[in-house]
Amino acid sequence: MKDANAENIFQLDGKVPLGKAIPIGLQHILAMFVANITPMMILASVCGLDQAITAKLIQNAMIVAGLGTLIQLCPVWKLGSKLPVVMGISFTFLNSAIFVGTTYGYATIIGCVLIGGIIEGILGLFAKYWIKLISPIVAATVVTAIGFSLLTVGANSFAGGQGAENYGVWQNWVIGSVTLLCCICFQIFTKGYLKVISVLFGLVVGYILSICLGVVDFSALQNTKVVSVPAFLPFKPEFNIGAILSFVVIYLVSATETIGDTTALASSALDRDVTDKELAGSIACDGFVSSIGGLFGCTPITSFSQNVGLVAMTKVVNRFTIGTGAIILIVAGIFPVFGALLTTVPQAVLGGCTIMMFGTIVVAGFQMLGKCGYTQRNTTIAALSLSVGLGFTQCSDMFKIFPQIVQSVFAQNCVSVVFVLSVILNLVLPKDKDEE
Q1: In whole angstroms, how large is the CA radius of gyration of the chain?
Q2: Residue 155, C-beta contacts closer than 8 angstroms, at least 6 positions apart
């Protein structure tokens, strides 16, 4: 490839030889692949959708996630941050989507996704008027909360996946440990380009070990079509005001996660503060592409913190390189057999790959807190927000006195609690003298 240089993988712009870009792009997709399709699988099952339509929704979820990632990397108009943000189907909406779907039907979910996405997109376009509410201490606290919230995700994957019949069996311990050890050793003992594909190396070794132990399920490959056209409007949208309002609230929570992820990317990978323009583009992309996803039957997308950890660990920020991953994701949607093959990667392998990445996000949050300074005011905001957010959501039954909409948004989402509380504290606590 003309003018391609492998050293560009550590630069935001510039081309990279495909032979080096594709493995890194694939690494990003494998880090988020199962998490991207799982919300759709769970929701379709709870709503009683048949296997044929479920397969279509999973296919569409991959395509929409790839499209959203490409727009983040290569902005269209004011949509996109031009940062290495990877998008995927959000877990944040799952509880509310289940409630709306089982109460009003799946078509009502689509109506909520369409309207809520447009509202978030518009808020993104006008972010300059309210983004100052997200001060550096608020952003740092939210990023730290995102990292802590993902630690149990990595641990559950390491053990085989929450709710799995083989959860915690010795095979998963062996697979997860070997995968993690391979990732660490490969990163320590290799140099240059090889160092940045340590996660992919660990994943390949873990997958081969899983096959040898007989825990890889290839049944997903049976009766899978080679090529399939995405299904447009598989459900005709229906609109319910109450359901839409509940989704709008959660869209605001999703926007805060995107703000935190985008801020963490700029801080940990680019060693600078994120700009208002980048935040606005990231939020607008989050909202409007979610609405596009609704036209294909998908629930909303958001930035994936897994990939923030991967970028922070490898320092690979090149948009072209990560864009190859987005194209792989779209191809996986158009060629379902490819996507089906990726779903055979056991959860224990993904857990071994991601457990350190999630810890990297926590450390990035600590670094951001350090840059803010440990004044009494900042310490109070961070300490109280994290202790309440992380502590209360571990005891989610304490929210049962509140209406269902409050429970859906806050009971099991520490990031939303931390965000709301940190914003309030930032507004009401008197500023330090040097800030006045």
Answers
A1: 21
A2: 351, 355
pLDDT in tens, 400-429: 999 877 887 788 778 888 988 999 999 999
Q: How many CB atoms lie within 10 A of CB 323?
A: 21
DSSP 301: E
Instruction: Give the three-state DSSP class for 208.
Output: helix
Q: In the numeric block, which tokens belong to residue 414? A: 């520490």
- Residue 370 CB neighbour total at 10 angstroms: 10
How many whole angstroms separate alpha carbon 222 and alpha carbon 192?
40
Q: List pLDDT tens digits, range 222-232.
A: 877 888 888 89
Tell me how far apart the alpha carbons of residues 160 and 172 are, in angstroms, rounded to a whole number. Answer: 6
d(CA 320, CA 54): 32
Using alpha carbons, select from 253, 263, 255 the residue that is nearest to residue 368: 263
* Cα separations in angstroms, 144 against 36, 137, 305: 22, 11, 11
Contact between 33 and 306 under an 8 Å Cβ cutoff? The reply is no
* Contact predicate 57/234, CB 8 Å: yes
Cβ atoms of 64 and 289 closer than 8 Å: yes
Sign of CA dihedral 35, 232, 117, 283: positive
Which residue type sits at 193? Answer: Y
Q: Give CA–CA dist 412/250, Å, rounded.
A: 12
Q: 415 near 149, Cβ under 8 Å?
A: yes
Residues of the chain with pLDDT under 70: 1-2, 34, 192-193, 433-436
Q: What is the pTM of this model?
A: 0.81
Helices 347-372 + 198-212 axis angle, to 10: 150
Given CA atoms 285, 117, 248, 87 in this order, what sign does their dihedral have?
negative
Neighbours of 52 (CB within 10 A): 8
